Amino acid sequence: MFNSYLLTTLRFDESACTNCGMCLAVCPQGVFVPGKKAVQMAYTARCMECGACQLNCPAGALQVESGVGCASAMFGAALRGKKLDQKEECT
Known about the structure:
- This protein is an alpha+beta fold.
- It has one domain (11-84): Alpha-Beta Plaits, CATH 3.30.70.
- The protein is built from three helices and four strands.
- Strands 1-4 form a two-stranded antiparallel sheet. The chain has a two-stranded antiparallel sheet with strand order 2-3.
- A hairpin with a 6-residue loop joins strand 2 (32-33) and strand 3 (40-41).
- The protein is elongated and about 45 Å long.
């Protein structure tokens, strides 16, 4: 069974990465860190699967099935009676 609290659908093809840093700029959870030849996925468990990295990667090095984490953020905000925080924003 897929445990969305421990696993993520985020996949990164380091060989396709051009090290442009776009994922660093758009990821609301800070999953990526700078690297010498390519960015690095340092905090994969933080990924809420919003899809921002995939949508903004010009090299197509990132793939993610949007939904699970994004939906979790939306439900959490609704249950708290608040708007989505910037870190929880879904695209």
